[in-house]
Amino acid sequence: MSDGSLSVPDYNQPVAGGGLLDRRLFLKQGVGAGAGLLLVGLDAPASEIPPWMHTPGAPFNNYGQPSNHEREVIRWISANSGAPGNGISWSPLHKLEGIITPNGLHFERHHNGVPAIDPERHRLRLHGLVRKPISFGIEDLLRYPMVSRICFVECGGNSNAGWHEEPIQTPAGYFHGLASCSEWTGVPLSTLLEEAGLLPEARWLIAEGADAAAMNISIPVEKALEDTLVALYQNGERIRPENGYPIRLILPGWEAVLSVKWLHRLQAAKEPVMARNETAKYTELQPDGKARQFTYLMDAKSFITHPSPGYRLRGPGLYQISGLAWSGRGKIRKVEVSADGGQSWAEAALQEPILSKCFTRFRLPWRWDGSPRILKSRAIDDTGYQQPERATLIAERGRNGYFHYNAIVSWAVATDGSLSHVYA
Amino acid sequence: MFMRKPHRHSRPRLFGLIAGQGISPFRQVVMQTLHHALRPSPRVSALILSMCILPTVHAAPEGPKLGQPLTAQELIGLDIHVFPDGYGLPAGRGTAREGKDIYHTQCASCHGIKGSGGSAGELTGTSALHGAHPDQTIGNYWPYATTIFDFVRRSMPLNAPRSLSEDQVYAITAYLLHINGLLDEDAVLDAKSLPAIRMPNREGFIRVWPDGR
C-alpha cells in the first residue's frame, strides 16, 4: 500500500513478531487493506433476490428479540443439579462486540434462584448505626436524583479455570465471562445515607438481598460514600429480575458479590458481619495457608475475544484482533498484543470511550502467514499496574486461591486456523 | 410464617447509643470537625482520622427526603445479621445431640452423612491449609462460629429457607461444630456460648482492604 514516498509511513510493515501490524493501519488506510480477508470464501451468486425482499416482513412486536440466526449467542449455565437456582451463567463475550453487554446476556450468580419480587411490596431499609432509621419504597427512589455509570461488574471467581493444571478448552466467554458491562442508572447511596444520618462510628454497611438466600455481605463505608449506586436501570431499562430487580447495589471496580442484587436492607455497623461470603468464600488461600480477605479490587485483565477458541481462521491474510480490557483501579492506559507468545509486543488501539472501571475495547491489525502462532494480550491501567503472566501470578499466590485470577491469556493458532487455549 | 423472638441485648444497646450521643447528621459532623480542627481533642482527632478515608462525603446529591421512619417493630424477623461478637443472636438454645436428627432430616441429603460426601460443600475436615487442594471447611477454615448460625438461619435448607426455629438453628450449629470436633455433644449453644467459641482458623486471614493489595 506504500506509495513509495518516505514521508508516508507504511503501516503494512509488521511492528512486532508474528505479523502484528501498526494499530493505525485501519484508521489511515481505510478498509481497502482489509477487504481481501472479508471476501475470502464468499462466492454468492450476484443477482439472486432473497425471499425476504419478495414478501412483507413480520409485524411489530412489543419487545424485540435477537435474530433466530443468533440463537447460539447465549449465556452458558452451570448450576447445581439438585438446586437449579444455585449456580452461575457466563456471558458469551466471545460472540459480542463493543463494550456493552446486552441485558439478557449479562452473567449471573444466584445462590438460590431468581426471586419474583413485586416492586410495590419491596422496600429498602437503612438502619443500625444511623441517626434516623428509614425505609424507602421503589416509587420513592424513582423520585431521587439519579446518575448513570458505565462500568463492568465482575465476579471475584471469574476466569478461575486459569488456576487449573491444564488449560481449559472452552469458548472465551465461558472462561472469562463472569464479567459484563452495562450503563447502570440509580441513586447514589451517599444521598440515602446522608438522609439516614450515618454515625461516625459506622464503618461498615451490611447489605442483604431479598432472595431465598438472603445473601448478605459487608461493605466499607468509604466505598458506599465514594461511588456506590442503588441502581434501578440497566442499559436504559429497569433491571431484569436475574440482575436484581427492582434494585441492586453497584460498586464500580469491586468484586461483584458486593453489588448485592434485590437489595432490601443496609445495616450500618462498627465491624463486618463476617458472613459466609466474606469468610468461607471470596477469600483466597495462599501457599502459606493464610487467606487473603476483603480483596475487593478487581485487578487489570484483558483477553482477545476475536479470534478465540471456537473460531477458525479462513486462511492466511489480514485479520483484526479485538478484545476487552478493564481494571477495577481506573482506566485502561494501554493494551499490548503479542503474536509470538510474548517475545515481542505491539500496542493496540483503544477504542473510545475509555472509561474508569469499564470494559475497554482494543483492536490491532494482524497479517497471519498461516504458521502456528500464540496470541496474547496484556493490559496496563492508569495506576501503572500491569496484568501479570500466569507463572508470575501463581508464583505469588499459589494455586489454591480460587478467586481473582487475572493472568495473561494465551490462544494458540494452528496451521488449520483453529484456536486453542494454552499456557505459554 | 417464621417470626423472630426479640433478643435481649442488641436493640436497647443500639438505640441507647443513638439516643445517648445526640449525633448530628454526617455532613454536620464533618463541618463540626473542620470548625474544631485547630483545637484538637481526642474525639475530634478521631473524626479527622476518619475523614482522611472518607474523602467524597461532600459529593452526595441532595434528595427529596422521602424516607419513612423505620421502627424496631418493622425489623422483627428481618434483622437477622449475626456478628462475631454475638450481636444479633436471638434467644434460644440447642445441643449437638438435638441437632443430629434435624441435620439428617434437613441437611444430609445435600451435605452427606456427618457433613461429608454430599453434592453440596464439605462441612467437615481438618486437613492442613497449605497442601495441594485443601478442603476449606467449617473445621479448618471458617474463622467465626457465629457465621454458621447467620448462614443457616438465612439460607438453609435451600428448599425452605427461614423454616427452622431459632432452637433448631442453634442445634444444627452445635451439631456442625460437634462433627468438626469443636463442641461436646451435650454442650448448650446459645447467644452467650456461641460467640465464645474460638475457631481453629480464627487468625488465618489477612485483610487486604484497605491497606494491602
Descriptive report:
- The complex is a heterodimer of chains A (424) and B (213).
- Helix content of chain A is 11%, strand content 31%.
- Chain A is mainly β and 424 residues long.
- Among the domains of chain A are: 119-292, Oxidoreductase, molybdopterin-binding domain (Sulfite Oxidase, Chain A, domain 2, Alpha-Beta Complex), CATH 3.90.420; 301-422, Immunoglobulin-like (Sandwich), CATH 2.60.40.650.
- In chain A, the strands form 6 sheets. In chain A, strands 5-4-13-8-9 form a 5-stranded mixed beta sheet. In chain A, strands 6, 7, 10, 11 and 12 form a 5-stranded antiparallel beta sheet that branches.
- The two termini of chain A are 34 Å apart.
- With 213 residues, chain B is mainly alpha-helical.
- The model of chain B is unreliable at 1-57 (pLDDT under 50).
- Chain B is globular.
- Chain B has helices at residues 10-21, 26-35, 42-52, 72-75, 96-106, 108-111, 146-155, 166-179; strands at residues 68-69, 93-94, 189-190, 205-207.
- Helix content of chain B is 36%, strand content 4%.
- In chain B, helix 2 (26-35) packs across helix 3 (42-52), helix 5 packs across helix 8 and helix 7 packs across helix 8.
- Chain B folds into 2 domains: 10-70, no CATH class; 93-190, Orthogonal Bundle (Cytochrome Bc1 Complex, Chain D, domain 2), CATH 1.10.760.10.
- The N and C termini of chain B lie far apart (45 Å).
- In chain B, 33% of the residues are buried.
- Chains A and B meet through strand 4, strand 5, helix 5, helix 6 and strand 13 of A and helix 1, helix 2, helix 3, strand 1 and helix 7 of B.
- Strand 15 of chain A pairs parallel with strand 4 (205-207) of chain B.
